């Protein structure tokens, strides 16, 4: 099972805020990197605990990096420190950020990704627009390509895959990572129809409401415990949660 960790803020007045609602302010106040350091450590600590409890049922945890954190020169050190402290194998962790972050001149995501890949950490990019199809190049050590909600919406439009220029372009783009064994997944998937169309494109994993609503860490832990009970296990396709 691949679990994705999402950064949220349980605000005392406004309730649960998603990352896009507060990270811009964190960027302005210089808090993104400290928050990110805590996020990485907490995610790795949680994964280590779950793997100790549930074994191979929890194979991997994916962590989305805010752009400001992805370009930080200490990113590799943060990840290495967390893995060492919690004695977690690097290949059980994957990190990803927006493809547009590659163009941020304040840091070098390519260098950080190369170093993380050398450690054994899986690294990925989020594709948000067809114009980013050319971001994939052989010199970037990628393990994952993630299609954003905006791309999933294109996929769910009511036209045949084989006659849509957009779909043909997406199919051609995905041929590149497929050839090199890069995993392609999609997020924000809301329906079985979207899942079917993504499967036609060769997308191997999806996450979103069609699979499961977001869970707190404690609720996820309960779900894992129930999954470990043979009475609660049923055969069927496996997807990201």
UniProtKB/TrEMBL annotation:
Domain named EAL: residues: 1-228
CDD domains: EAL
InterPro entries: Biofilm_reg_signaling, EAL_dom, EAL_sf
Source taxon at top rank: Bacteria
Record protein name field: EAL domain-containing protein
Species: Thermocrispum agreste
């Amino acid at each position: 099972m691949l679990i994705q960790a999402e950064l949220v803020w349980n605000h005392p007045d406004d309730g649960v805020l998603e990352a896009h609602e507060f990270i811009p302010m964190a960027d302005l106040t210089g808090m993104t990197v400290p928050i990110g350091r805590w996020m990485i450590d907490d995610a790795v600590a949680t994964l280590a605990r779950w793997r100790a409890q549930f074994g191979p049922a929890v194979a991997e945890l994916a962590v989305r990096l805010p752009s400001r954190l992805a370009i930080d020169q200490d990113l590799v050190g943060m990840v290495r420190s967390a893995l060492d402290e919690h004695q977690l194998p690097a290949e059980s962790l994957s990190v990803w950020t927006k493809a547009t972050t590659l163009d941020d001149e304040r840091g070098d995501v390519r260098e950080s990704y190369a170093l993380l890949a050398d450690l054994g950490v899986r690294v990925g990019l989020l594709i948000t627009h067809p114009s980013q199809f050319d971001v994939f190049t052989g010199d970037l050590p990628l393990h994952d390509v993630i299609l954003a909600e905006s791309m999933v919406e294109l996929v769910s439009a009511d036209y045949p895959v084989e006659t849509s220029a957009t779909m043909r372009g997406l199919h051609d783009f995905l041929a590149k990572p497929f050839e090199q064994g890069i995993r392609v997944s999609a997020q924000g998937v809301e329906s079985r129809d979207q899942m079917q169309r993504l499967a036609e494109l060769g997308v191997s994993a999806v996450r979103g409401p069609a699979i499961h609503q977001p869970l707190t860490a404690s609720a996820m832990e309960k779900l894992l415990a129930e999954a470990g009970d043979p009475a609660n296990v049923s055969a069927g396709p496996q997807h990201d949660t």
